[in-house]
Amino acid sequence: MQEFELINRYFKGRGITRRDVNLGIGDDCALVSIPENSQLAITTDTMVAGVHFFEDMSPRALGHRAIAVNLSDLAAMGAEPAWVSVALTLPKAEVEWLEEFTAGMHEIAEYFNVQIIGGDTTQGPLTVTVCAKGTVPTGKALTRGGAKPGDWIYVTGPLGDAGLAIEARKQHLDIAPEWLKKLTTKLEYPTPRVAAGQVLRGYASSAIDISDGLLADLQHILDMSLVSATIHADKIPTSEAFRQSIEGEAKWPYVLGYGDDYELLYTVPENHKAMLDNRLSQYGIEAVCIGQIRGGEGKVEVLNGEDKLDVAQVGFEHFIQGDA
């Protein structure tokens, strides 16, 4: 299958058509209209087989995940997703694989009213690069640099599921099939918190999505905001599948050190706390307060009840840094 045949068959004319797309797939560039009084938010993510995902991952899940992780970045900025470009490198063009992969992409894109407006295809090791674009009202974007001492630290949902799924897949853990299925779904079909990100605008002081692990991503906020933090590990939410699969001290690396769950981590001042909790609950999001921002620069204290956890012993090699 030639490049343009592939593009015409699997991308051009498929999915939603947004009114703000003046020119989509088929020319040298796409043309889009930006809403008045808005800023353009742009993020790019590359996923390489054997590094960022298992080589035998289903193509439908890969298509979904490739879009989802980028929309999660937009959500962390409070942006409304609108358009994506896709660069796809394939060892060979297999019809069945492409049908499933593009179906996964189009499903999640349509759900979030996102149009695929361009990209590139080439031959080589399996690699997917997505550039996602969205809009945010001018001056309203969430950043990592606004946290202040006294702000409360929240997460939008349970952590650790994806990490358990990865380690089970690498045969480092033995998990009952019924729970492993749920954990694997969280890994392969993450749900970007797009609605939550837009609700956070005007209330949260900083935000980030949890892709590299709670402590690693919190550290980005602390470094940009020049503050420290106290985290109560025993308050971090986990799913039933997680609780049924691991317990005791063995759970801490997964909730604190692993990533790939794509929940939002955000900080909120005391005077906005109740209002934001109420607004999020209207969207069915029960965000959980797990700590508080302190003065100082960059230090994290992690407590389990009254006991202090040794953070240096919590982390381990992240999947994204090792072999799949």
How would you describe this structure to a colleague?
With 324 residues, this protein is α+β, with helices and mostly antiparallel strands. The chain folds into 2 domains: 135 residues, PurM-like, N-terminal domain (60s Ribosomal Protein L30, Chain: A); 164 residues, Phosphoribosyl-aminoimidazole Synthetase, Chain A, domain 2 (Alpha-Beta Complex). It is built from 10 helices and 13 strands. The strands form 3 sheets. A 7-stranded mixed sheet has the order 8-10-7-11-9-12-13, sandwiched between helices. Helix 3 links the parallel strand 4 and strand 5. Helix 2 runs parallel beside helix 3. It is globular and about 65 Å long. The chain starts with a helix and ends in a 16-residue tail after the last strand. The C terminus is likely disordered. Pathway: Cofactor biosynthesis; thiamine diphosphate biosynthesis; thiamine diphosphate from thiamine phosphate: step 1/1. Keywords: ATP-binding, Kinase, Magnesium, Metal-binding, Nucleotide-binding, Thiamine biosynthesis, Transferase. Belongs to the thiamine-monophosphate kinase family. GO terms for molecular function: ATP binding; magnesium ion binding; thiamine-phosphate kinase activity. Its EC number is 2.7.4.16.
Strand content: 15-25%
What do the pLDDT scores average to?
Answer: 91
* End-to-end Cα distance: 29 Å
| Structural class computed from helices and strand pairing | alpha+beta
- With strands numbered from the N-terminus, the spatial order across the biggest sheet is 8-10-7-11-9-12-13
Number of domains: 2
Estimated helix fraction: 25-40%
Global geometry? globular
The radius of gyration computed from the alpha-carbon positions, rounded to a whole number of angstroms, is 20 Å
CATH class of the largest domain: Alpha Beta
What is the CATH T-level topology of the largest domain? Phosphoribosyl-aminoimidazole Synthetase, Chain A, domain 2
> How many helices does DSSP assign?
10
What string, H for helix and E for strand, traces the elements in order?
HEEEHEHEEEHHHEHEHHEHEEE
In CATH, the homologous superfamily of the largest domain goes by the name PurM-like C-terminal domain
In terms of per-residue confidence, which ranges show pLDDT below 50 for 5 or more consecutive residues?
315-324
**What is the CATH architecture descriptor of the largest domain?**
Alpha-Beta Complex
The overall strand count is: 13
Binding site for Mg(2+) 2: 45, 73
GO biological process, one term: thiamine diphosphate biosynthetic process
GO molecular function: ATP binding; magnesium ion binding; thiamine-phosphate kinase activity
Binding site for Mg(2+) 4: 28, 43, 73
